Amino acid sequence: MSSLAEYEQRMRVTLAQWEKELLQPPGFLERTSKRVQTKINEMIPDKVHAALTSAVRGIVKSVQIGLDFSPQSPPQIGLALQERDELADEKRNMYKKIAAAEGAGTGAGGFVLSLVDFPALIAIKMKFLFELAHVYGFSTKNESERLFILYVFQLAFSRGDVRARTYQQVRDWDRVSLLGSGNPNGVSMQRFNWEQFQMEYRDTIDFRKMLQLIPGVGAAIGAWANYGLLEELSVTAKNSYRLRWLQLQNAQQSPKQLP
């Protein structure tokens, strides 16, 4: 077996383990965390919730159009999975540093600048996902690929049943995306539930981002929170694209054949 084939086989094992962990029923800590999040939501000022809601709505609209985040470089063609993974790691490291610097800057500015951090961080994450799509050979000029990015984002920042349903859509994307809005099981930009998207994201990040509002430690907390959130997103996104890439290989297709 060639080294490239061996690498792909290892990644299949990695993906199987990732799926198993992803679909595990919520444990005690996760159930407790959900209750804590509910309390935290009640403590966070309405201005913070309004800022996050507005930011998410704006980001979803931008992704629908695709102009704000599309990379200048075209999708990568002809690379092996290992080469794509290495490029993905380079992108991850770069964007983690950008996110940490942004979190430190806004965290040092207190409550007002922390409000700015919510839309800025989401924009950084979306830019990273658009770049990652091109690394794995998928063009973000395609609306279906931009919609896939939203589902990957939701998969990274959701819990329980929502996470399980989102994973099923991500896993079967090249089938369900073809069904379109005319089928109750299909997906489309028009049917995307941005309110659920916003609520799941808010509930996942609230605790860490609330700590950023504490005077005196906001900069350190902001950098730590943003760095960790980018890492979580990168794991989910990288595995999601690996999964699709390998599925296409199994079907004896190539990502470059996609529109």
Summarize the entry for a quick read.
With 259 residues, this protein is mainly α. The chain has helices at residues 3-22, 28-43, 46-65, 81-107, 110-135, 143-156, 160-171, 173-179, 194-211, 218-250. The model is unreliable at 254-259 (pLDDT under 50).
Fold and architecture overview:
There is one protein chain. By secondary structure, this protein is mainly alpha-helical. Helix 4 runs antiparallel to helix 5 (110-135), helix 5 (110-135) packs across helix 6 (143-156) and helix 6 (143-156) packs across helix 10 (218-250). 75% of the residues lie in helices and 0% in strands. It contains 10 helices and no strands.
List the helices and strands and how they pair.
Blueprint: H1 3-22, H2 28-43, H3 46-65, H4 81-107, H5 110-135, H6 143-156, H7 160-171, H8 173-179, H9 194-211, H10 218-250
Helix pairs in contact: 1-10, 2-9, 3-5, 3-6, 3-9, 4-5, 4-10, 5-6, 5-10, 6-7, 6-10, 9-10
Structural class: mainly alpha
Largest sheet: none
Structure summary, number of beta strands: 0
CA-atom Rg in angstroms: 18 Å
| DSSP helix fraction | over 70%
| SS element count, helices | 10
Bulk shape: globular
Key structural traits:
259 residues; mainly alpha; 10 helices; 75% helix; disordered C terminus
